[in-house]
Amino acid sequence: MPRKVTESVRPIDAVVEAFRAKRRQHEVPEWGLTLYFGPITAYEMEEVGKRAKGKGQFEQNIILLIYKARNAEGRPVFEMGDKEALKNEADLTVLQRLVNFMWDGVSDAKERVEADPTSSSV
Predict the structure, then answer these.
(1) In this structure, what DSSP letter does residue 5 have?
(2) What fold, for 39-121?
(3) Domains in the chain: boundaries
(4) What is the spatial distance between Cα 114 and Cα 4, in angstroms, rounded to a whole number?
(5) Which of 3, 36, 55, 120 is deepest in the core (most CB within 10 A)?
């Protein structure tokens, strides 16, 4: 749980700390990788929309995967130049599992907010 905002803890510091605390780990045995995913942000969705303009949902999800997948140190695992290889040379089942994992956090949050729309529900 993030620290309470005080004179020594700025509100933005509490926001960033809460965001970082929600990072989730996912094992990808087929690739020999452990990937880490933070919550999806408004900025990332905006960037995905710009990059995938006129493209299908799966292309958008591949771009989001490139933005979201991190290593244990928090560095990106993929680059935008990896997009074609991910689309053409990665197992669709593995990609779909990763896409589902990324979006699970959003679905969970949406259900909690619908059940209790106060900030304490998230």
Answers:
(1) P
(2) rbstp2171 (3.30.2220)
(3) 39-121
(4) 25
(5) 36
